[in-house]
TrEMBL record:
Record carries keyword Nucleotidyltransferase: no
The protein, known as: Alpha/beta hydrolase
GO molecular function: hydrolase activity
Keyword Hydrolase assigned: yes
Residue intervals passing through the bilayer: 6-25
Source taxon at top rank: Bacteria
Start and end residues of each Serine aminopeptidase S33 domain: 86-194
A Pfam family of this chain: Hydrolase_4
Keywords, ordered alphabetically: Hydrolase, Membrane, Transmembrane, Transmembrane helix
Length: 307
């Protein structure tokens, strides 16, 4: 009887440890710590005179879009061009729509208006968890459909995404048939979220335990948030994207490795372009290579822009 009690107690302890580790791993994913919005505002507006002056002078309107998941997506329409051409900007994890201002300014030079929006659980948008593209792609669909319904069948819509936002753009383009997009620009996307979290964990755990941790996280993320890590894999759907894609990555990016963009490029259908920039850590490609980044966008749009 004593051995049986000891056995049951041991099983209980192991199960409790299993659940605790599973919750810890998935909490770090689902409720990833975000940047302070005031820090982003200071970086993008207060301390950036060029962006501040531009953002203050352009006609803009804050809008609210209903998510299919039951919350509100907060967005801003920036209307500077008298033409039915729009780019929807999908920002990275921990950021807000303000980090997209730099790209809205860039695309204005090529005749595009902008829709910047807050991803779920970021900025002013609702949503309880971050899913790194799984649920975010549904919100991106809602934003794109808003533009389509607002401006009609002749509107040209592109998507520019950074990091998680780039993965979201690919997942959207490769998941939904008959979408109205004309192009996608994917700046430093991950190819597979499982591989990405494994890469991050490599710094302080062995490959053996990293693999086990990913398997455990996959089990708990499915139980807690309704999807599996394999469903957050742009590499699995990029070949279904039927519009031109420009992949941009910096060679100095050690957070999401440039090899991930190279893999996505190889798997994507034509027409496609890949630009590897020499300078800049993660998500800093434009800030550190402004002329080269602009030239890459100009060359890409030359082949996709409607008259």
């Amino acid at each position: 009887m004593r051995l049986l009690k000891l056995f049951i107690s041991s099983i209980g302890i192991l199960f409790s440890a299993f659940v605790s580790v599973g919750y810890l791993l998935t909490n770090r994913m689902m409720f990833i710590k975000k940047k302070d919005p005031s820090t982003i505002y200071e970086r993008e507006i207060l301390l950036n005179e060029e962006q501040r002056n531009w953002y203050e002078r352009v006609p803009k309107k804050d809008i609210q879009i209903d998510s299919k998941h039951g919350y509100t997506i907060h967005a801003t329409v920036i209307q500077t061009i008298n033409a039915p051409r729009y780019v929807v900007f999908s920002h990275g994890v921990t950021e807000t729509r303000l980090s997209s201002i730099q790209f809205a300014m860039l695309f204005e030079q090529f005749g595009y208006n902008a829709i910047i929006y807050d991803q779920r659980r970021h900025g002013n948008s609702g949503g309880k968890t971050t899913s790194f593209g799984y649920y975010e792609k549904v919100d991106l669909q809602a934003v794109v459909q808003y533009v389509k319904h607002w401006k009609g069948p002749d509107v040209e819509i592109g998507v520019h995404g950074v990091s998680m936002g780039a993965a979201t753009a690919i997942l959207y383009g490769g998941t939904y048939e008959h979408h109205p997009l004309s192009f996608i620009v994917a700046d430093c996307p991950f190819s597979s979220f499982s591989k990405q979290i494994t890469h991050i964990a490599q710094g302080d755990t062995s490959p053996y335990w990293t693999e086990r941790a990913v398997q455990l996280a996959n089990l708990f993320i499915h139980w807690r948030d309704g999807y599996t890590l394999s469903e957050v894999s742009p590499i699995r759907v990029v070949d279904k994207v039927d519009v031109p894609i420009l992949f941009i990555h910096t060679l100095e990016d050690t957070f999401i490795l440039p090899e991930m963009s190279e893999d996505l490029y190889e798997a994507a259908k034509e027409p496609k372009q890949l630009v590897l920039l020499p300078k800049g850590k993660h998500a800093l490609g434009y800030r550190k290579n402004r002329e080269a980044y602009r030239n890459a966008i100009a060359d890409f749009l030359q082949h996709v822009k409607k008259d």
